[in-house]
């Protein structure tokens, strides 16, 4: 504990591991908890998850077991292992202290938001707020109402538009720079293709142009779809940050 307090984590980790090996169960939970905290400080989330998992298995009291499970789930969500976290979260019943219960629903809100299940996310975030904090509940409700109205830009629409006219999908998604580039490049290669076909024949023209068509035309409408997805995700992320700010 002295080495832990001094942030000498390598020395402290070795000592805590010795306690786990030789201690016959004594101080096991405290050791695992501190080992997990050190891994988090070192940004080793997988290592922290492992220690919290061990602690949840060793804990005898349900409340203690649940708390370690919740910490493990927080790590899983940080690594975007949403489905695994959801399994563990739903395995916990609601017979928990208020702080743990609210934390459980907070993590469920994050998990469902990551899975783009906004209805379940909203319900979970609301349950994470004490009933008497009416203003916060109203804030969360209001933010989710804004969220469900965010439907544009549609990725499929951006893709189809760029298939019809290169660059138009990027314009639709709000990326004018890439839209102009795509329009000019594809227009230029179309002009060169026609010029080549008139002078050297259609077969030779197709043979020389096909790599460029694949790269710039096919790549262009795929890129338009990705740009629209990124723009849509960015809009949702802004609302998500506002939701998290309610809990600060």
- Class per helix and strand makeup: mainly alpha
How much helical structure, as a percent, in the residues? Answer: over 70%
Principal-axis shape equals elongated
Q: Which stretches are poorly predicted, pLDDT < 50 over at least 5 residues?
A: none
Oligomer: single chain
Strand content: under 5%
Please tally the helical runs, counting DSSP H or I stretches of 4 or more residues. 13
Element-by-element helix/strand order: HHHHHHHHHHHHH
Question: Your description of this structure?
Answer:
By secondary structure, the chain is an all-alpha fold. The chain is elongated. Helix content is 81%, strand content 0%. It has three domains: 1-58, no CATH class; 83-149, no CATH class; 155-241. The mean pLDDT is 86.
List the keywords:
3 domains; elongated; 248 residues; mainly alpha; single chain
What's the arrangement of secondary structure elements?
Blueprint: H1 2-5, H2 9-22, H3 28-41, H4 45-58, H5 62-78, H6 82-91, H7 98-114, H8 118-127, H9 134-148, H10 155-164, H11 168-173, H12 176-200, H13 202-246
Helix pairs in contact: 2-3, 3-4, 4-5, 5-6, 5-7, 6-7, 7-8, 8-9, 9-13, 10-13, 12-13
């Amino acid at each position: 504990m002295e080495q832990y307090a001094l942030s000498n984590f390598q020395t402290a980790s070795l000592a805590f591991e010795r306690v786990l090996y030789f201690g016959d169960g004594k101080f096991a939970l405290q050791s695992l908890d501190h080992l997990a905290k050190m891994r988090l400080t070192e940004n080793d989330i997988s290592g922290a998850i492992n220690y919290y998992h061990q602690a949840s298995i060793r804990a005898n009291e349900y409340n203690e077991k649940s708390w370690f499970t919740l910490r493990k789930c927080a790590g899983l969500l940080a690594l975007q292992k949403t489905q695994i976290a959801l399994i563990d979260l739903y395995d916990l019943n609601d017979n928990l202290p208020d702080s743990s219960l609210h934390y459980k629903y907070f993590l469920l809100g994050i998990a469902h938001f990551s899975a783009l299940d906004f209805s379940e996310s909203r319900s979970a975030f609301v349950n994470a707020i004490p009933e008497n904090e009416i203003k916060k509940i109203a804030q969360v409700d209001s933010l989710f109402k804004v969220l469900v109205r965010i439907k544009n830009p549609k990725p499929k629409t951006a893709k189809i538009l760029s298939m019809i006219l290169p660059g138009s999908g990027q314009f639709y998604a709000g990326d004018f720079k890439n839209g102009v580039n795509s329009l000019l490049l594809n227009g230029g290669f179309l002009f060169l293709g026609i010029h080549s076909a008139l002078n050297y024949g259609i077969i030779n023209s197709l043979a020389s142009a096909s790599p460029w068509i694949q790269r710039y035309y096919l790549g262009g409408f795929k890129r338009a779809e990705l740009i629209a997805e990124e723009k849509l995700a960015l809009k949702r992320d802004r609302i998500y940050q506002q939701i998290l700010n309610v809990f600060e």
